[in-house]
């Protein structure tokens, strides 16, 4: 158990142990069935302090949900450094390889409320709190490395546009509506981010199988004061994988908690979730050597130009004990840094440095949210801040100001040699002006580069995503503006495809970006693949021998996969294996499927599951006793990714490992 988890458990009330019920003041309660009344049928008395305390707490159980990133799921873990980065930074977590730094990570969707589904087409939040010996460092990022705007003053507008429309509160957790596409078509700096949002990155297979990015350009500063610009990356050890859009919609209907259940169950099984931390580094003197502005949050640094240096590994291995106390009350802030990490002049980052504290003040009831156990640093902290809502500390002493004589000027500031934080000594001067640098004006080159980097099936998914999203817009002018202002300046082929689908006019002028560069690192076709933790659904007919099922299960689990048997009703297989039913699970909830058929006919639900798995390009394995398995199916054993597992289980597992049979 890591240090932060131990610290949290000091505040844990274990209701699994025998104990008397008490009030919040510790008074033992003799009755929790009835309120105090004047006679059995009389009115409830105001003096019933137990009733009033219980009801008052219930009335205030809910805090305002986050405006964005409301639906989240958190998990504990630790970070280990591979080798010292003292050349670049003096931050202890990046220089001391003997440390194991506790972390808490909160994954989230952006647009939906707390009750929305897990797999909308959306950005995913990827926020990490490092509990370091110098204080908390929060890396507050997303699963996409860019964002919709270049300046934080536009952030409220973008969120208002993507949220349910205010006149009817629809649709929930979706960008496929008029106000979103109206906004992005009028704010073309969003073009690059929209390409990511329409890509498969927006519908991840699992929270364990998506990348994370710090988004902004930060600084690392070493002990000598030398500065490097840095972008942070999280690389999943299992690779970056996705579902397809039709599958996502079905999953949301079958299990709207699909992502959080996947993460919870894998950690409960002991399947540690691992991400490697990477950094892209640019010396300060090379700030202007790229063909774009490195401070622009709508731009990436192509990995082929600025390689990602892998520096450490984060292992997520402990679920929370209390969702509200930990996941819901955790407060992240990109301004929580430690010595050796500093900010750049990225105008979106600069705005976020204000916004996050302001948000927590209303969500968590005042300025003392840092005292909530999940937010408390593991190192000591002391200052002259006092009182306020939810003050939990008892601070001794006569003084609460700096400087003071009465308390020997305690607490006193720390020198840099003692670990005191110093901002980077950057020269800044200029006229006060509301404007944007000319170096931020190119909105389409990297959007084109993203498309250039995709495989054929990834491109088709993007084309279809634009067609779906814009097809949901009711206003013809919004659709036309999106085509004219966003699609056409990126790619003519994409524009022609979408125009044909959504009933608008093809723009007369061709203003397509001629940017020819590509970045193979952007394609998920180049991601690692593994059988580890892949879920295989095995459909059976009732006459399949138990021994055959258990033998297959053992072979598959030996390769690292997880197996679920599916039948027409719950059946016991062996001593401790029970089947699921077609009522409770579906092929969309699995990475791949197998059908084991005896002499009995396939259940109609099995036929439907197999057809949908084939449509979603999943690996399909089969074994049959009478050879007529394909009579009820639209595909055959000759189709790609359809394998007789009795003859070639190895090939079937290769197809599973590849995630999809894209060339089917």
UniProtKB/TrEMBL annotation:
Sorted UniProt keywords: Heme, Hydrogen peroxide, Iron, Metal-binding, Oxidoreductase, Peroxidase
Keyword Transmembrane helix: no
Cofactor: heme
Keyword Iron in annotation: yes
Domain called Catalase core: residue spans: 22-410
GO terms, molecular function: catalase activity
Catalytic activity: 2 H2O2 = O2 + 2 H2O
Top class in the EC scheme: oxidoreductase
Organism superkingdom: Bacteria
EC number of the protein: 1.11.1.6
Location of region: Disordered: 1-23
Family: Belongs to the catalase family. HPII subfamily.
Function summary: Decomposes hydrogen peroxide into water and oxygen; serves to protect cells from the toxic effects of hydrogen peroxide.
Protein name: Catalase
Organism: Salinicoccus siamensis
């Amino acid at each position: 158990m890591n240090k932060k988890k131990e610290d949290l458990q000091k505040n844990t009330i274990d209701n699994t142990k025998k104990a008397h019920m008490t009030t919040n003041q510790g008074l033992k309660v003799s009755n929790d069935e009835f309120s105090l009344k004047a006679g059995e049928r009389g009115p409830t008395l105001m003096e019933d302090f137990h009733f009033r305390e219980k009801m008052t707490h219930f009335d205030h159980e809910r805090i305002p949900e986050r405006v964005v990133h409301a639906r989240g799921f958190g998990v504990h873990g630790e970070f280990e450094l591979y080798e010292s980065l003292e050349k670049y930074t003096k931050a202890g977590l990046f220089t001391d390889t003997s440390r194991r730094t506790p972390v808490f990570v909160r994954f989230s969707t952006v647009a939906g409320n707390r009750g929305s589904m897990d797999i909308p087409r959306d950005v995913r939040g990827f926020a990490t709190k490092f509990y370091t010996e110098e204080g908390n460092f929060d890396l507050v990022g997303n699963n996409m490395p860019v964002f919709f705007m270049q300046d934080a003053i536009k952030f409220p507008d973008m969120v208002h546009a993507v949220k349910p429309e205010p006149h009817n509160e629809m649709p929930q957790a979706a960008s496929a509506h008029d106000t979103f596409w109206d906004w992005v078509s009028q704010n073309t700096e969003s073009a690059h981010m929209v390409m990511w949002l329409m890509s498969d990155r927006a519908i991840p297979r699992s929270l364990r199988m998506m990348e994370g990015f710090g988004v902004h350009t930060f600084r690392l500063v070493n002990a000598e004061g030398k500065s490097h610009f840095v972008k942070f990356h999280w690389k999943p050890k299992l690779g970056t994988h996705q579902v397809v859009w039709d599958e996502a919609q079905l999953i949301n209907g079958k299990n709207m908690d699909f992502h959080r259940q996947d993460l919870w169950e894998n950690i409960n099984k002991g399947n540690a979730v691992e991400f490697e931390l990477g950094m892209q580094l640019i010396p300060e003197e090379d700030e202007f050597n790229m063909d774009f502005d490195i401070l622009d949050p709508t731009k990436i640094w192509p990995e082929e130009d600025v390689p990602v240096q892998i520096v450490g590994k984060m292992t997520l291995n402990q679920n929370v004990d209390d969702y509200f106390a930990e996941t819901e009350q955790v407060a992240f802030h990109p301004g929580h840094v430690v010595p050796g990490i500093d900010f750049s002049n990225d105008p979106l980052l600069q705005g976020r440095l204000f916004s996050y504290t302001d948000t927590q003040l209303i969500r968590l009831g005042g300025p003392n949210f840092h005292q909530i156990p999940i937010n408390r640093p593991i190192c000591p902290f002391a200052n002259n801040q006092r009182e306020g809502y939810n003050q939990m500390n008892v601070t001794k002493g006569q003084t609460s100001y700096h400087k003071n004589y009465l308390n020997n000027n305690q607490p006193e500031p720390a020198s840099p040699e003692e670990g005191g934080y110093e901002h980077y000594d950057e020269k800044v001067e200029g006229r006060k002006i509301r404007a944007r640098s000319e170096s931020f004006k190119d909105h389409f080159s990297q959007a084109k580069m993203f498309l250039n980097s995709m495989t054929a099936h990834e491109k088709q998914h993007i084309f279809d995503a634009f067609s779906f999203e814009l097809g949901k817009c009711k206003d013809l002018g919004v659709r036309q503006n999106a085509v004219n202002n966003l699609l056409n300046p990126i790619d003519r082929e994409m524009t022609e495809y979408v125009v044909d689908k959504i009933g608008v006019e093809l723009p007369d002028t061709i203003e397509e970006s001629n940017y020819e560069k590509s970045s193979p690192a952007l394609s998920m076709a180049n991601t690692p693949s593994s059988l580890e933790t892949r879920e295989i659904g095995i459909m059976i007919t009732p006459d399949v021998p138990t021994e055959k099922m258990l033998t297959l299960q053992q072979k598959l689990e030996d390769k690292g996969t997880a197996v679920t048997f599916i039948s027409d009703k719950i059946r016991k297989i062996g001593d401790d294996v029970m089947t699921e039913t077609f009522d409770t699970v579906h092929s969309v909830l699995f990475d791949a499927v197998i059908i084991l058929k005896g002499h009995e006919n396939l259940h109609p639900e099995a036929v439907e599951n197999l057809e949908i798995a084939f449509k979603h390009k999943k690996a399909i394995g089969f074994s049959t006793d009478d050879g007529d398995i394909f009579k009820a199916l639209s595909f055959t054993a000759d189709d790609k990714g359809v394998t007789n597992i009795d003859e070639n289980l190895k090939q079937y597992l290769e197809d599973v490992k590849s995630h999809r049979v894209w060339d089917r």
